[in-house]
Amino acid sequence: MSIHTNAIPETSKIRDQSKLRPADMTPRKSNESVELEISLPMLLVFIVAIGVLAYGLFSFFGNKDNSNTISKKPPTVLVDGMVDVTLSTEYLTILEDSKNAKYAFVEFSDYECPYCKGFTVGFDGETVSSYAEIKKRYVDSKVMKHMFAPYIAVPSHKPAATNETLGFYCAAAQGKAREYHEKAFQKTTGNGLGIDKKGAERGAILNLAKEIGVNEAEFAACYDKRDIVAIDRIQEKIEKDVKTPWGDKFGSQNFGTPAFAVCKISADNPTTCVGKAYVGAWPYADMKGVLDTFLGADAPK
Question: Is residue 16 in some structural domain?
Answer without folding.
Answer: no
